Structure to design on (111 residues):
């Protein structure tokens, strides 16, 4: 049986690999914003989970900040991310999500 950590890493790998394929196709925030709100929320939630997993491997404080940020905005569909995507429609959605998280919680720079 796989451990929770192994499942999380496998999920993260899937997200990263499928995300790279989408980025290669020129997936932009403008396209993302045409999706139904539930799909937008699910995509952002998955990206935030990925970021939290990365942070948890490197900085408990960073992971806690991201978790707190997510808890604050998940119920309203991550409006800070949606607003940022509206301002930057030519950027990939995942890049915008990470930029919003970095603004809220600091960079994903670890030593």
């Amino acid at each position: 049986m796989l451990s929770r950590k192994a499942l999380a890493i496998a999920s993260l790998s899937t997200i990263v690999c499928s995300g790279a394929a989408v980025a290669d196709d020129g997936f932009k925030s403008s396209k993302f914003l045409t999706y139904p709100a539930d799909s937008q929320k699910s995509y952002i939630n998955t990206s935030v989970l990925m970021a939290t997993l990365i942070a948890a491997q490197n900085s408990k404080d960073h992971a806690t900040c991201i978790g707190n940020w997510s808890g604050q905005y998940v119920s309203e569909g991550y409006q800070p991310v949606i607003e940022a995507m509206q301002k930057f429609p030519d950027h990939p959605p995942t890049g915008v999500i990470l930029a919003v998280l970095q603004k809220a919680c600091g960079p994903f720079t670890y030593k």
Observations:
- The two ends are 32 Å apart (CA to CA).
- The mean pLDDT is 85.
- The chain is about 75% helix and 0% strand.
